[in-house]
Amino acid sequence: MATQTAEQLTKKKCLPCEGGVDPYSPDEAKAQLSNHEGWYLTHEGQRIRKDWKVKNFLAGMDFFQKCAEVAEADGHHPDLHIEGYRNVSVELWTHAIGGLSENDFILAAKIDQLPIELASK
Ligand SMILES: C[C@H](O)[C@H](O)[C@H]1CNC2=NC(N)=NC(=O)C2=N1
């Protein structure tokens, strides 16, 4: 499977996934991740995740709202985590196949285009 650049992926739209496609293998996922700065594999290669430290609580909520809007527009939905009031994380996987599909990398690329107010320290 050839890797795709983030720019290519942001031009695509997530396709409904109801199963029947093979998830990315950990090696395929690792190769694709080299085009997604800051994202890493979790759950034995079945999910991707990225963490940010934002300026304050509302900056995190604002970022989550923007993630939600992108997710709704594409019909593919992330797990959104917040810990310690300003450590936010996004985790992506395709529930229907219990692993990673192109949809996850499309959404990761689109989430990376969103504005986010990071903490200065
Ligand atoms: C038909 C529709 O595409 C599915 O119900 C979608 C909705 N959002 C989803 N989001 C995620 N992350 N995984 C899914 O399998 C999924 N399925």
UniProtKB/TrEMBL annotation:
Enzyme class: lyase
Chemical reaction(s) catalysed: (4aS,6R)-4a-hydroxy-L-erythro-5,6,7,8-tetrahydrobiopterin = (6R)-L-erythro-6,7-dihydrobiopterin + H2O
UniProt record, GO biological process: tetrahydrobiopterin biosynthetic process
Gene3D superfamilies, A to Z: Transcriptional coactivator/pterin dehydratase
Domain of life (superkingdom): Bacteria
GO molecular function, one term: 4-alpha-hydroxytetrahydrobiopterin dehydratase activity
Keyword Kinase: no
Record carries keyword Lyase: yes
EC code: 4.2.1.96
UniProt KW keywords: Lyase
Record-linked InterPro entries: PCD_sf (IPR036428), Pterin_deHydtase (IPR001533)
Classification via PANTHER family: PTERIN-4-ALPHA-CARBINOLAMINE DEHYDRATASE
Sequence similarity: Belongs to the pterin-4-alpha-carbinolamine dehydratase family.
Name listed for the protein in its UniProt record: 4a-hydroxytetrahydrobiopterin dehydratase
Species this chain originates from: Bythopirellula goksoeyrii
